[in-house]
Amino acid sequence: MTEPLQPDNSKKILVIEDEESIWSLVKNYLEREGFKVEVATEGRQGLEMARQHRPDLVILDLMLPGMDGLEVCRILRGESSVYILMLTARTDEVDRVVGLTMGADDYVTKPFSPRELVARVKAALRRQQLDSVQPAPAQTTPPLPLEPAHLDFGNLHIEPDARKVWVNKQLLDLTRTEFDLLMTLAATPNWVFSREKLLEIVWGYDFFGDERVVDVHIGQLRKKIEATGGGQPVKTVWGVGYRFEPIPVTTSSTNQNEK
Ligand code: CA
Question: Taking the model in full, what pTM does it have?
């Protein structure tokens, strides 16, 4: 597929976590990889540091003294599109974390393996690097499958370069992850993608990652599409995954709530 980019380990990572045993471990592992790591042990302080230092990625604990992780995530997401990796204590918090904040890109459940955390950080940064790569002048290998200036599927319109999506003539306010998911599905209409495959393509994970995070982000994406009243092109394939079914153009606006 794509050529792996050289990892840019001068990337800045902000860790917002009050438990010293955890932040020192995480800091250690990330610094060993060459990342620049800063630590905030309180929510408000973390938010201030994020504003000042503009990290490339934020590792954010859910339970923090003072302003909690959800609030920090919500505010931060309102201000920037920085990749946010949440640390949660329990798996059953996932829906709440990703759903409520509508902004965390991924989460890791405690206790976690530091090696896995580092691998996720690297995958996320690699993905960001890919996102920000401008169409390169004549390469030996072509860029990903042909990406035309825009894609039209009935009343759904995508401009990949601008990373913008319109449904029913309404511009969707999508997070980076939601856009990547939609783009991946829409690039091969009607193809069924397993959750595992989506984790691999969108998150860059080969062998880890919780498939539920895919469901939560798909859920958010669908909600935003549904809110336009323009139909639902993202279909669930039970027991398998998801596929994109172009919305047929109709003269009267239909409002199906198909799952
Ligand atoms: Ca904590």
Answer: 0.64
